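Review form for a predicted model. The reviewer records the input and the model, then writes brief findings.
Reviewer: anonymous (R2)
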Amino acid sequence: MRKAATGLLRNGILGCAALLVSMATMSGKASAQAADAERILKTMSDYLTTQKAIMVSFDTAIEVVTPDLQKIQFASSGKLLVRRPDKLRFSRIGGYADIDVTFDGKTLTVYGKNLQSYAQFESPGTIDEIIGRLRDNHNVGAPGADFLSSNVYDELIEDVMEAKYVGRGVIDGVECEHLAFRNAETDWQIWVELGDRPVPRKYVITSKAVAGAPQYTLRIKDWTSNVGILPESFEFQPPEGTMKLPLEAMASIDEIPFGVVAGRGKP
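Model under review:
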């Protein structure tokens, strides 16, 4: 009886030891994965902030969830011109909106081509400042705008509770590092081009706070850095026949058509 009890005790101790070793190994792997993910994200961020002039073409897809839990996705394509620190031009065309946003360092213009109207207001400052004002003062969100920040890493890593290096992936024939991050309200993934040009190739945000977990996807088709961009590329001249409106009156410039899908939810 005593031998049996001793054997059980010995087995129990060995089992606990094995479990602790296993847990420590898993914890070590998770820590290593987090460190790898954060390192790659930092490398990407540092590279992006050195790019003074950028030309980008991209596709986006945004999901909404209807009251009967059907997911519907809206797609668009666009182009971006950036000249740091204070010039920006962004265009996007989808099934319901065709817009052009221009910032020349002093004035922001939002032109709705399909609406034959534009909004314009003085807002001198940097790209960081104009993005912040649009978000905070006009409730205009721009997923992916963090890539244009002068503090890319700080903007992306803020509120992250978990980081993971997933592995390798291929986006449009380009081999990438696949990273995954979590915070309280969203999960987000990013695919970073492998090699000496670590630019983002795909970015997916999943909203956990909305039923059905809709996603926003940004897929970068082409990223050209340090190219010659003329100053007039950031100037806006209203075409003949267009009407000037307050920004708040231009509700039909969203990626999702207003009123088409009831009960919409987006990241």
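Findings: The first strand starts at residue 53 and ends at 65.
Further findings: Residues 1-6, 19-26, 262-267 have pLDDT under 50 and may be disordered.
Recommendation: see findings above.
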